[in-house]
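Posting for a labmate who doesn't have an account.
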Amino acid sequence: MFEVRNICFSRGGSDVLSGVTFSASVGEVVAVTGANGAGKTTLLKILAGIWLPSSGTAVADGVDLIAEPIRYRRRLGWLGETAPADGDISVKAYLKYRAKLKGEQSRKIRHRVREAMEVCGLGSIADVAVGALSRGQRKRVALAEAVLLRPRLLLLDDVFAGLDADARAAVVSIVTSFQPFAAVIVSGHETEWFARLNAKTVEIKDGRVA
């Protein structure tokens, strides 16, 4: 179970989020929607432990974001607005590097990378440089990184943005295949594609759950 408890966030003297509360169970997708500037990305960055809330907290499997931030972050996978940077490193080498940075045991890294690449359909481009990939392919690499350690909570910010229909369909397939293992929180405007995920919608308006 994942719970968002009365999250508030202020910036520059203005309230961005006020008392945001909702929950998600393993196997459930929650789509956070709202107009541009509503606070969707701010909320997901707080849930990812990147920014601290002004008040309130989030709890993943009984582990509190504020009280135990390191244990909390170990339970989640995060995909931000940007895909992996350009570079000559291959897809497989990049994922191995990221798994090591995330603290995975050396003996498990090969298995984790192979599993993530299989789920995200990256086998045919395993040895291709990340910088040579299309935007849709790089999004799949970012998704593979997010699911590397089989997180219990998967946070996907603006996951469909900038992708064509085929790439969006691929994202739906990836999220659906991983859904039984985690609670999934996605954000964006693409309600048609959220519907394909059977997502429960949480609309943010004026910093609150509408």
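Reply:
Got it, the structure tokens are right above this. The first strand starts at residue 2 and ends at 11.
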